[in-house]
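Cont'd.
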Amino acid sequence: MSSELTLELSSKSFDGYQYVYSHDSFTVDCTMKFGVYVPTIADNECVPLLIFLSDLTSNEQNFITQTGVQRLASKYGFIVANPDTSPRGCNIEGDRDQRDFGEGAGYYIDATEDKWSNNYQMFSYVNDEFYELIIRNFNVDISRIGIFGHSMGGHGALISFFKCPGQYKSVSAFAPICSALKCEWSRNAFTKFLGQDETLWKEYDACELVSLYHGPMPYAPVLIDLGSNDQYKDDYLFPDKLLEACCNASFPIQLRQQIGYEHGYFFVMTFLEDHFKYHKNEFEHLK
Amino acid sequence: MSSELTLELSSKSFDGYQYVYSHDSFTVDCTMKFGVYVPTIADNECVPLLIFLSDLTSNEQNFITQTGVQRLASKYGFIVANPDTSPRGCNIEGDRDQRDFGEGAGYYIDATEDKWSNNYQMFSYVNDEFYELIIRNFNVDISRIGIFGHSMGGHGALISFFKCPGQYKSVSAFAPICSALKCEWSRNAFTKFLGQDETLWKEYDACELVSLYHGPMPYAPVLIDLGSNDQYKDDYLFPDKLLEACCNASFPIQLRQQIGYEHGYFFVMTFLEDHFKYHKNEFEHLK
């Protein structure tokens, strides 16, 4: 392990280890924590990596304590790494006033407005610094890296996949914010992070990005799960817009409506294994 | 559902439902919350019930959010109910000063000292009021009810099994406090709840109780898991004392040392399915 990482937690689970590390991030200019589960098989060989991006208000703890991901990471032999959802402790005025903006709500974008741009560089953090950090420090097969996420993190996973062609071999999402341009949460945040000019916002909207995507195509349609009782579905997530945009762009997607399920971790944990299977299948069909 | 229960949470998970209810408890004289997972199969038939007792500082949320129990309850077709670890909101002086005493730390015993005896009646709450409440309100097969728990809750499960012969057909535990008479946490609590006379304390010590037990014997030795890296093992849990007491009482027990595992939920979640299998096997061999 390189000296750049500080071990915060190490706990054996399903034969492998759940770790939490902290490190000084040069991208977001503060100390960041992340979770990483390492299965036993990674002691001896390079294994696939899944990066999971979390939802609004979560930190690096929620995914690793509330989904039972360790069982699946052990069973499938994947390293699973999950970054925090924002910079922390930067003490910028207003960064803790709203649950849908600031700490716990970075939207995985790079802020351009002066007040926020020194710290809120979550797109670059996840896809450059964090990505490289995980590859450098753990036994990752760099040809088999996927990304997925939940709600705000589903948005993050989709835009990361579309904006970094080929970097991630697979993508999936649970109840993602499908159109950040339309979602009230992200509109509020984008106004602050990016300013009033909505043309800039399109750089971080999955529906806009899919029409510009020219990278490798998935083998099976991208898996998106959504609960029929998701309380945010109609007013914040806009799955229909993504279906329409993907259809127009001839990008394959499968949006599964899960009857009776809601938005939270009880929904995510139920279908988490299906997402592992999806990514595994994509890795097995790499061109 | 009877009017005695107030629904606090209902969330679909693994095809069944995770609920949290509150109710006004006459036993502990305050409003109590509990979790209960109901698998789909219970819509049509009576199913087994497992009661899970949690550890120090937990409330009804920890077990249902941190162990992935829903997957197993669904897979095995069990109702799983978990009460809180203490009365709440009683505003007794000193009930929130220590992490190992008072709120979140009721030790599943019935207090006799005046200051605490009106509310801290957790043994009677779990084994009478809560037990009856679950049977009355959910589709439980009363011939197949087991109890298990973690740490303080492992102690609670063991003493409940021994003190209520035949009420629970099976018992198991994760890293239980094996001898409450020896554990510093419970000694502190018993002094306050029961007074100075340690002969009274023996009524709530698993090692003492096994020697008095004359109820039905388990089919397979009672399953107890303990992590070799459990930081509380030697000074608070005293597993050797339980092994010795069970041996002397000819009561069958299997204490599995799980190499490298610690005390917390990452350990519990890893071996939770083994405990479901254990209880299922006991139910299948009921005499």
